[in-house]
Amino acid sequence: MAHDGPVPGGSNWVRLQQSRPHVGYDSVTGLMVFHPERGFGIIDWHNQTHYNCSLIVAQRLMFKDLAEKIDQRKKFNQIIINDVDDWYWGLHKDNHAYRLTHPDFNKDENIAHYKHIVQECDGVVASTPFLADKMKNEFKCKNVFLVENHVEVKRFNPRRPNIKKTVVGWVGSTSHRSGDLETIAPVLDNRKFRLHHSGHVNTAEWFADKVGLPRDKVTKAPMYDPRDYARLSFQFDIGIAPLNDVPFNHAKSWIKAIEYAAAGVPFVASDLGEYRRLYETYGIGRTASTHEEWTKHLEELCDLQVRTKEAKEQREKVQEVLDVPLMGKKWRKVFDEYL
């Protein structure tokens, strides 16, 4: 499917782009630039530069000179807010982003500059309570807001019940993990279900290799444009969301879990952080902390009736409490504080 503009990153799509139509303010998206006499502007995807922005939301910008430029924003009557969706300062060394953002490997664009940038901004919007606490109490940022991740449920085609052998699937990039898949490797060698990975990239480690299974035991689908992701990625009956118990993962949002639920795919997640909070707050999903619990949940969900009932209930819950129009209202409240 053809789309206008370049492919957005996953976080940019989830956090900002899909919410824009529901916020209620006129907005433009593109590349952030700075002019010493005009302030910050946005170059849109039609190569038009907009210097009339009263408020700009930045995300994952880590350039070494950006904090100094943000310091000049007040003379241009501009507000700069930073959206923070990951605890980059706690990245696991196995995560591909570690070498890309650590000062030892990247002098010009790194997490040291990133920290200075978020501290300099007029406000920070965090996707999880963990991140909000870090921004407020550790980084001493001004005006910290919580806007959790939501999904646009109507984009997801509910999975049709599979009456043949159950397929257990995982969606994600193997290059941006923190030892997560290995935590449940023994559970996945199970005769009661087949395995699928959506998000396969030939140049990255294979899902099958990460969980210690022959490659021909796992079907795969490529990584899709985030705008097509909801429609194409969920080609399985039960989702898994394993996490390794490391600081970076304590900050991770519940986005993968609610995507499964929106797609009509019941799931099992590690009993950590936001997955635990999602279950305790909204009753969405199943959590497991031992291999025995993982096996029990997965085998129970292999029952077609159990799976069908759970899929319907959880999609409805996500639509009720975590649909994107609700996220747009939360962003609106943030902007109203300034505009």
Enumerate the strands of the largest sheet in spatial order, edge to edge or round the barrel: 10-9-8-11-12-13
Fill in the CATH topology of the largest domain.
Answer: Rossmann fold
pLDDT under 50 segments (min length 5)?
none
Radius of gyration: 21 Å
Q: Count all strands and give the number.
A: 13
CATH superfamily of the largest domain: Glycogen Phosphorylase B
Mean pLDDT across every amino acid position: 94
Portion of residues in beta strands equals 15-25%
Portion in helices: 25-40%
Order of helices and strands: HEEEEHEHHEHEEEHEHEHHEHEHHH
SS-based structural class?
alpha/beta
CATH architecture of the largest domain: 3-Layer(aba) Sandwich
**Main beta sheet:** 6 strands, parallel
Shape: globular
Distance between the termini: 36 Å
| Annotation field: number of helices | 13
Instruction: Provide the number of structural domains.
Output: 2
The CATH class of the largest domain, by name, is Alpha Beta
Short description:
By secondary structure, the chain is of the alpha/beta class.
Describe the structure.
With about 350 residues, the protein is α/β, with parallel strands linked by helices. It folds into 2 domains: about 10-150 and about 325-335, Rossmann fold, CATH 3.40.50; about 155-320, Glycogen Phosphorylase B (Rossmann fold), CATH 3.40.50. It is built from 13 helices and 13 strands. The strands form 3 sheets. Strands 10-9-8-11-12-13 form a 6-stranded parallel beta sheet, sandwiched between helices. It has a 4-stranded parallel beta sheet with strand order 4-5-6-7. It is globular.
